[in-house]
Design goal:
With about 100 residues, the chain is an all-beta fold. It is about 0% helix and about 55% strand.
Length: about 100
């Protein structure tokens, strides 16, 4: 069977993201899905909580844009690897995966 040239390529397994708060911290997460930005979260995460919770599926997307009020207070768990807190303190916006 032949596929037409305008068939989009099959998407790779989406990236997964969770965030754990080391202290109460405000976070906004935008997922890029099919080239579109979709806000999946904007709120304060309480100390020691993880979003989404461990009983819920992780956020998924081709990539993510994460904005934090205090980057040192949030641990980034990307594709089940805990990368810890972002290396620069303060208000940060960063993209995952990093380009």
């Amino acid at each position: 069977m032949q596929t037409s040239d305008n068939t989009p390529p099959k998407a790779a397994t989406p990236n997964q993201l969770r965030i754990r708060a080391k202290k109460d911290t405000w976070i906004r997460v935008i997922a890029i899905r099919d080239g579109k930005e979709v806000q999946v979260f904007e709120d304060t995460i309480d100390e020691d909580d993880m979003m989404p919770g461990k009983d819920d599926p992780a956020w998924t997307g081709e990539s993510f844009v994460v904005t934090t009020r205090e980057a040192a207070d949030a641990e980034i768990i990307f594709n089940d690897s805990n990368f810890g807190a972002y290396e620069k303190p303060g208000n940060q916006t960063f993209r995952l995966p990093a380009r």
